[in-house]
Write a structure and sequence with these properties.
By secondary structure, the protein is α+β, with helices and mostly antiparallel strands. The chain has 2 domains: 2-55 and 62-76, no CATH class; 95-151 and 171-389, phage-related protein like fold, CATH 3.90.1690. It has helices at residues 2-20, 27-53, 67-76, 83-94, 117-130, 198-223, 251-260, 275-282; strands spanning 113-114, 138-140, 147-151, 173-177, 181-189, 243-245, 269-273, 293-297, 303-307, 310-314, 329-335, 339-354, 359-372, 379-382. Helix 1 (2-20) runs antiparallel to helix 2 and helix 5 crosses helix 6 (198-223).
């Protein structure tokens, strides 16, 4: 068993060296081989662990790693995921202890510590789970400043006579460039948490950072100006006939909004509005006193809201219909995966002391930018500029 484990490790080292040297490889075959090696290694190690637990009066047999194997394995691990760094990070936050030298580097210039990978993964999960908008958009991790090609025109097929050709169409391509915008979140940690358990500390950090950053990100996705923050959906100018002036919440308003959506973009487009605005639609009834809007409830009790069969997403980042002023957008329809949020998920932290409360305040910092890549599905419901409700 030990011999085979060594062979697997040697083969991994060989593949890694070939990849770094730029050797020509069949990447698909390499990925398949690595997956098979990983599966075999896990199975062998599991067998070894089970064998070691069997008490038959023998000295337990353990796999002995050579020094070079330990070094390779250490280099392949994420140092920010280790329990050592997680404990050092906790002491850095609570006790103002210095980080060990090997953990002080960071790609974020304004950060003096990087959030442990274990905590960071949970922050990302929390962002996805707690927001209504973030799970619907497209997320990328391109390097800032890089121009990414996007298609601006679709080719058209034409009918031709037998033996005849058709005009070769050049597919026009545009580009999308993401910048660097810094999102900052300050979290206060009380000095009384000196003896808090590591798991409880990490949960507190996750909950505070996630709640603050999800709100900031989702606000920018809806109404960001593009100046020091991502460019929001409502910063785009809708196409002609896709701006609906609403003087009353009624059935014709819904019909007009539905008619304005290009048929190519019907699938996947959703309404976005506040709960108060949806409540106004929910009170509408037809001539038979049947409600126009629908709220269905799944097995788990979650509400599934819709207007004329189109899904409704609720958020607090728009004014409600009752509170909207002349010219304001209070609801819109959009295909949410046509918005791209580009994020650097290595969130760094710096600390300072609030002398009024004696709290240690942690600044969480991340880089993000976002843009609409296709605005053709956007239909806005606005209060007329010339007259208030």
């Amino acid at each position: 068993m030990d011999k085979r484990l060594k062979e697997i490790m040697d083969r991994k080292i060989e593949i890694r060296k070939a990849l770094k040297d730029g050797s020509e490889l069949d990447l698909a075959a390499v990925e398949t081989e690595l997956a098979a090696l990983e599966t075999e290694e896990v199975e062998l190690r599991r067998k070894g662990e089970i064998a070691n637990k069997i008490n038959i009066g023998e000295v337990p047999v353990t796999a002995v790693q050579k020094p070079e194997e330990k070094e390779v394995r250490k280099n392949m691990e994420d140092k920010f995921e280790s329990i050592e760094y997680r404990k050092a990070f906790k002491d850095f936050v609570i006790k103002n202890s210095d980080l060990p030298a090997e953990y002080r580097s960071s790609s974020t210039a304004d950060a003096s510590a990087v959030i442990p990978t274990t905590v960071l993964n949970r922050v990302i999960d929390k962002l996805t789970a707690s927001g209504m908008i973030l799970p619907l958009i497209t997320r990328t991790a391109y390097k800032g400043g890089v121009s990414i090609p996007i298609s601006s025109v679709k080719p058209v097929a034409t009918w031709v006579a037998d033996g005849a050709g058709s005009t070769v169409q050049n597919k026009a391509m545009g580009t999308l460039t993401f910048g660097y915008f810094k999102l900052r979140c300050a979290v206060g940690v009380s000095f009384t948490l000196d003896n808090i358990a590591l798991s409880a500390f990490e949960n507190a950090i996750v909950n505070n950072i996630a709640e603050a950053m999800v709100i900031a990100l989702e606000k920018s996705i809806i109404s960001g100006t593009g100046n020091g923050q991502p460019t929001g959906i409502l910063a785009e100018t809708p196409n002609a006939n896709q701006v609906i002036s609403v003087t009353a919440i009624d059935y014709p308003t819904l019909v007009s909004a539905e008619a304005a959506i290009p048929i190519e973009y019907e699938t996947g487009a959703v309404y976005v509005m506040t709960k108060q605005t949806f409540g106004a639609f929910l009170s509408m009834v037809d001539t038979n006193k049947q409600p126009i809007a629908r709220v269905n409830y799944g097995i788990n009790g979650d509400a599934d809201r819709s207007l004329l069969g189109r899904k409704v997403i609720l958020c607090n980042y728009l004014p409600s219909y009752a509170a909207a002023t002349a010219g304001q957008t209070f609801a819109f329809i959009f295909k949410m995966d046509d918005y791209v949020l580009n994020t650097n998920f290595e969130i760094g932290m710096r600390r300072y002391e609030d002398y009024t409360t004696d709290d240690q305040v942690m600044k969480a910092i991340m880089l993000a930018d976002g843009k609409v890549v296709d605005k053709n599905s956007l239909v806005t419901l606005n209060i007329p500029a010339a007259a208030a409700k």
